[in-house]
Design brief:
Length: about 425
């Protein structure tokens, strides 16, 4: 309510109520005066005048009551609605604060997705939600989680940024299945979808999608857009922090050039897998790999080409391994592959496949590219973890001495490695 410097009330409704109160008070005052003076008036005409004034005051008071009551009730109802609306907004703000606090404790996307799903279900009941986040190379968005998404409306697992108007404009966009509406290339299905880019630290971290199949979907989503934007803003900072932690963790565990695990991770993984093999009586194999004449490649073609060949060799290795296998950069151009639950014979066959894949890179770079391999296994070659890598390394040098571009398997701690010549 606005008041000027002299205290005048600028609310028309309240001014009207104040005027009615003044008139009603005046009418009641006239009635009281007439009633008090009535016994002391001696003349009949004057008594009639006083009685008329008393009656008129009663009529005025009754009329003011009849006409003023609806306006007063309406004013009370409006103020009650305003109070309820303010209370609902305070509840939403408090919920968003709790969501932000919970997201700060999230250890990864699993925790963050659980918090976001509970928030959407509480603050946006009846709407479906989906979260997309950028991959490590930031060339596409991948579906991270969904909540109550319409069953008849499929979601793409991957979205290219160039296919999305919300990401290209950096603003929310409504994909509505009506004539004349501008929809994103990736939009499929019949649900009306509100897409909100999530930005933090000057970069878009992902996208939040809110959908509904209601008849007045566009109006419903327009009404929910401010609250959905607040949720997306709170989630964007959490996604940014999680991505940063994942990046730092990757940098601590992986070799930046090849993307393979580093030597520190290799030592931990080897110890862990060896303990599992000892307890279960299973197998554990190691393949030591060394690119042939790699120094000559660097000297003739430059380190840039040498780095490219090393990356391609690492990619060829990763493309042939199981999800449980671990590939590491042992040092320089030496690589190591750990194969849990894999015997010497299987590991030797795997090494031969890797040798063929690396040799095939020669056609891409128009130069000779090959690698030598040494294979050892527990318990086929040794029962001691400390001997596993030394046996694989000894077999590797046996392969190099035998002419390179070949696989050598170590069959026993006291036996010489048996070379397996390349075809």
């Amino acid at each position: 309510m606005k008041r000027d410097r002299i205290g005048r009330n600028d609310d028309p409704l309240e001014r009207a109520l104040q005027l009615r109160v003044i008139l009603a008070s005046g009418a009641v005052g006239v009635m009281v005066i007439a009633h008090l003076t009535h016994p002391y008036v001696g003349y009949s005409d004057l008594r009639m005048v006083v009685a008329a004034l008393e009656f008129a005051g009663a009529i005025v008071a009754l009329l003011l009551l009849l006409f003023g009551a609806p306006h007063s009730l309406r004013a009370l109802r409006e103020r009650r609605e305003d109070a309820e609306r303010a209370h609902a907004e305070r509840k939403q703000i408090n919920h968003l604060f709790r969501m932000t606090e919970m997201l700060q404790s999230a250890n990864g996307y699993g925790d963050a997705n659980a918090v976001l799903g509970a928030t959407i279900e509480s603050l946006l009941p009846g709407f479906g939600g989906a979260l997309y986040v950028f991959n490590n190379s930031r060339d596409r968005l991948e579906l991270s989680a969904t909540w109550h998404w319409p069953d008849n409306d499929p979601l793409r697992p991957v979205i290219a940024p160039a296919q999305c108007w919300a990401l290209k404009r950096g603003k929310f966009h409504l994909n509505a299945g009506v004539r004349g509406a501008l929809c994103c290339e990736h939009h499929v299905g019949r649900a009306t979808v509100l897409e909100l880019p999530m930005s933090a630290h000057g970069e878009i971290q992902g996208m939040l999608k809110i959908a509904t199949n209601l008849p007045d979907a566009s109006a419903q989503l327009a009404q929910a857009q401010p609250l959905a934007t607040a949720i997306a803003d709170a989630m964007s900072l959490a996604v940014s922090n999680i991505a940063l932690r994942e990046k730092l963790r990757t940098q601590a565990l992986r070799d930046p050039l090849t993307g393979l695990y580093n030597r520190r991770y290799m030592e931990d993984a080897l110890t862990r897998f060896a303990g599992l093999a000892e307890r279960s009586g299973g197998h554990l194999s190691a393949i030591m790999i060394d690119l042939d004449h790699f120094k000559k490649v660097n000297d003739e073609f430059g380190h840039a080409m040498g780095d490219a060949i090393l990356r391609e060799a690492a990619a060829a290795i990763m493309g042939t391994l199981r999800t449980s296998d671990v590939a590491c950069r042992y040092g320089g151009e030496e690589l190591l592959v750990i194969l849990p639950e894999c015997g010497l014979s299987e590991a030797t066959s795997k090494a031969e496949l890797l040798r063929e894949r690396i040799e095939a890179l020669s056609t891409t770079y128009e130069t000779t590219i090959s690698a030598s391999f040494g294979v050892a296994a527990i318990p086929d070659s040794t029962r001691v973890l400390a001997d596993l890598l030394s046996l694989a390394d000894t077999a590797l040098y046996q392969a190099k001495e035998g002419g390179r571009n070949r696989v050598v398997a170590a069959h026993g701690r006291d036996l010489a490695p048996i070379p397996i010549a390349a075809e």
